[in-house]
Amino acid sequence: MLLAAAAPSCPPSSETTKAFEAAMTPAQAEAAAAQLAPRLFAQAAATDVEGGFPTREFNWLHTAGLLTAALPAALGGAGLHTPAATLALLRVLQHVGRGNLAVGRVYEGHVNALLLIQQLATADQVARYAADTHAGHLFGVWNTENPADGVHLEALPNGRYRLRGAKTFASGAGHLARPLITGALPDGQGWQLFVLPADAQPPVLDRSFWQPLGMRATASFRADLTGLEIGAEDLIGPPNAYYQQPAFSGGAIRFAAVQLGGAEAVCDETIAFLRSLGRTDDPYQRQRLGEMAILRESGRQWLRGAAENAARADAAAPAGAETTVAYANMMRTAIETISLDMLRLAERCVGARGLLRPQPFERLHRDLTHYLRQPAPDGALADVGRFVLDGKTF
């Protein structure tokens, strides 16, 4: 029996949205993130604890209106969900990543979940989860699992569903109230997205799973959902909707924007370190900083290119789906290269002395190196090669 799924989203009624007022414009959201970035950076060392979580920082994001920024204006957001606002969204993510990559990673997952819900859920579900976001609830996406004990949905006679299995790399586990999760339907019917009300039904967490090189404060534990129950009202979209393109791969531009923010923090702190030592007249240091400036501007150009491509692809939908995926794969590859080159040059600039705590480079290096390890980098680059070999252009 195929499990019931929510219908695609449609615009909310006036009754649904009348309790909300637009929080800010896309430009104001970008300005709020830029203003918050130095505060996040100043707090980052204290938050860098294995198994910890940046609770205070997310309270700041909530106060600044950034938790709701990906919602439409009719639901009290900044409208960052639209293709026209892609550049503002990417810059918001960049600024948060510049402040703290661990915060940026969890915040990007929160934004990703809200975008998926708006794309796939019913109007009533969208409004309900918008209200949860205004209340300060954190969302996220938990998809990674081990094949041997992945999440399954088991139908119950009362129309509800019992969960069995676990997710790994469940970022924000123990702190997300509304994780968006993939689970296997019975009899090979595909994968179903659902929102777990984790504040009422918390999963069992294995904190020993998360002993990372970097990104310590993301609380990316193993989360066992076995025995928890959800209802039909918690199901989001039809089976296999999560893997539909271009949304599945095209979203890589968002985590790449957070990564670029981390690379920019490396550049900014290298300049500050050399100034503090009076090493600004050294011609070799200037040469390396010149290279870093080029890398930084190259990354910013990729953000602009991704935004322009999003607008073109939206105008050409659905024909623009393949181009969206190829461009996202190209951008994530370019940002990875930019970030690795930035780290290499920064190491040469600051030397062993700069890699000692309390200098921030040791933490920045760990966090950015770890966060750059995204799935299937070779496949992403090969997809770009296939795209151009087929004679297609961006």
From TrEMBL:
It comes from the Bacteria. Residues 244-368 form the Acyl-CoA dehydrogenase/oxidase C-terminal domain. Keywords: FAD, Flavoprotein. Its cofactor is FAD. InterPro entries: Acyl-CoA_Oxase/DH_mid-dom_sf, AcylCo_DH-like_C, AcylCo_DH/oxidase_C, AcylCoA_DH/ox_N, AcylCoA_DH/ox_N_sf, AcylCoA_DH/oxidase_NM_dom_sf. Residues 34-133 form the Acyl-CoA dehydrogenase/oxidase N-terminal domain. Belongs to the acyl-CoA dehydrogenase family. This is Acyl-CoA dehydrogenase family protein.
